[in-house]
Amino acid sequence: MERSNKRLILILLLVSIFLLTGCDKFNFNIFNASKDEPGVTVTIEPDNAVSKDGVTKDHPTDSAKSVQGDLTPTTIADIELTIYSISEQGELEPVTALVTEDSTIVPELIVEKVVESLADQSITIGIDSVTSEDDKVIVSFKKDQAPYTNMGSEYEANILNAFAQSLIDNITSVKQVIFRVEGKAYSGGSFEYKLNQSYMSE
Predict the structure, then answer these.
(1) DSSP, residue by residue, 142-185
(2) Beta bridge partners of 191
(3) Phi/psi of residue 62, each to 5°?
(4) DSSP characters for the chain?
(5) Residue 97 to residue 195: CA distance in whole angstroms
(6) With 0-12 CB in 10 A as exposed, 13-18 as middle and 19+ as buried, what is 118?
(7) Residue 150: per-residue pLDDT
(8) What average pLDDT does range 30-43 have in this prediction?
(9) What is the chain's Cα-based Rg?
(10) Which whole number is the average pLDDT over 159-170?
(11) pTM
(12) CA 191: distance to chain centroid?
């Protein structure tokens, strides 16, 4: 009799442990919050609600949300310009340069785009100044940088051609391109030009 009482107590203890630990083997359906029950409403906390301790919670207002939602990024369209650069083989080649649609196509912009394109080929160009006189554009280079120094004659010629051809092709008012070195005549090395001598003309 005493042994059967111990067994009964042991069984009751085991059942109690299962119930208390919420064993997933038993499902008593005591409460299931996931099911929608009629008559139950869910209240969403309003914007700028005050908590129990009196502190106002900072929530964006509906108007702020609508303004943020209406914001769309503005993009400016690009236009393509055909300029000239140097290929990996050192030859003159046409390339496409992108400029914003509201850009004014002036000699300075064309020279800048050619410089950027040559930089992509690891050729650093030293620009001293870019000026315009009537139908002429004068590009003055720095004497201690390419194309005036550190270039073979073929590379130097192709670099000068890239600038001259890009200017004449993209700006209809440009009829002549003159190259100088720090304001002086482009002379020395592979090429000899007088101060106002055109390198290329239309």
Answers:
(1) -TTSBTTSS--HHHHHHHHHHHHHHHHHH-TT--EEEEEETTEE
(2) 188
(3) -60, -40
(4) -HHHHHHHHHHHHHHHHHHHHT-TT----S--TTS--TT----PPPTT-B-TTSPBP----HHHHHHHHH-----PPEEEEEEEEE-TTS-EEEEEEEEETT----HHHHHHHHHHHHHTTT--B-EEEEEEETTEEEEEE-TTSBTTSS--HHHHHHHHHHHHHHHHHH-TT--EEEEEETTEE-EETTEE--TT--SEE-
(5) 30
(6) buried
(7) 81
(8) 51
(9) 40
(10) 97
(11) 0.63
(12) 40
Query: Which tokens is 139 given?
Result: 């590009």
Position 151: which residue type? M
| Banded model confidence at residue 106, pLDDT cuts 50, 70, 90 | very high
Beta strands 136-141 and 127-133 are: antiparallel
Structure tokens at 163: 């600038």
pLDDT interval class at 137 (50, 70, 90): very high
Residue keyed to tokens 């119930």: 19
pLDDT digits (tens, 9 = 90+) for 1-30: 556 677 778 788 777 776 666 545 545 454
